[in-house]
Amino acid sequence: MRTAEQTPTLLRRALVGGALGAVLVAGVVTPAQALDVPPRPSEGAVQDQADLLTPDQEKQLNHLIGDKNRENEYIRAAVLTVDDTQGEDIEDYSRKVATDWGVGEDGRNNGVLIVADMGERKLRIEVADGAREVLSNDDARSIMEDKLEPGFKDGQYAEAFTDTVTEVYDEADPQAAADRAAYHRTLMTILFSVLGAAAVAAIGFFTVRASRTRRIRERADREIEQYQREHPDEEITEGMRRAYYRYRAQNRKAPGLNDTPRKGRDKDGIEHEIQYAPTFQSWLPLYVMYPAVYSGSTYTPSATSSSYGGGASSSFGGGGGFTGGGASGSF
């Protein structure tokens, strides 16, 4: 028989046990909160949820990415700004969003997602496995430190994204990738060659090639400097300079009478014969009219591509391979 003194003790035990059971049950039946991935941009490659950009700035950034996609097959970039990452680490969050969006091309995994978290003041350049062949983690770190972080610390968000996107694509430029591949082939030849003569020949080959490339660029620089002296009010951007380097490297001399003209497609997918321009002054109006055709890129987009949607200019093609490559930063 329970005494009066035992009753409160038993009651307290029952209440504690019931509360513990409720907690355990809640833990079993309540699922963990799933990550609410922001919607992929319906147009373009920029999702500015944190509202950092004006409509005109966002439009310009979208056009920049679209143009770069048409010029360069090695990278497909997108941009995301958020007010918070829902408690996720910036790296995990960026990887999940990039995978969900399908940044990059299916099978090539060449996507790059640039993320800004305004709540935690964190930044991330997420690089897919395929893209790391031309944009290493060290490259991403350098771009983070030199372009993205300084711009955000100064509150110059549009400039920071523009500079970062430009640097990402320029670092993965086809000519730059070829130069790096040639450099690594040279090292491997020297390392594994059992014949000193073969190693010397390889070094000589790449030395001649590098010398030829240097002469082409020096000539191009002289032409550009002359043009700027004659037209001081006209601005020649770094993108124009790089495009002319590539064009001149691929068009060192005028084609012969029996040569088949090279062709390229403009941003609307219309095919044009690529005219030979002997100087920067004769090349510039052609480039201004058809930048995708006269950028010197060897990549020709399909005729079905649009400014932002599917095709060569789109940053979303079902890509994946986001296993943690890239670099993180803060501001």
Structural class of the helices, strands and pairings?
Answer: alpha/beta
- The rough form would be described as globular
- Count of helical segments? 9
Order of helices and strands: HEHEHEEEHHHHHEEHEE
The amount of beta strand, in percent, is 5-15%
**Count of discrete domains:** 2
Strands, count: 9
Distance between the termini: 70 Å
Task: Round the mean pLDDT to the nearest integer and report it.
Answer: 81
Architecture of the largest domain, CATH level 2? Roll
Q: Characterize the main sheet.
A: 5 strands, mixed
Domain TPM: 46-170
Keywords: Coiled coil, Membrane, Transmembrane, Transmembrane helix
Transmembrane segments: 187-208
InterPro entries: TPM_dom
Write the layout of secondary structure elements.
Elements: H1 6-29, E1 46-48, H2 55-71, E2 76-82, H3 90-101, E3 104-105, E4 111-117, E5 122-127, H4 137-153, H5 157-171, H6 174-192, H7 196-230, H8 238-250, E6 263-265, E7 271-273, H9 280-289, E8 316-317, E9 325-330
Parallel strand pairs: 1-2, 2-4, 3-8
Antiparallel strand pairs: 4-5, 5-9, 6-7
Helix pairs in contact: 2-5, 4-5, 6-7, 7-8
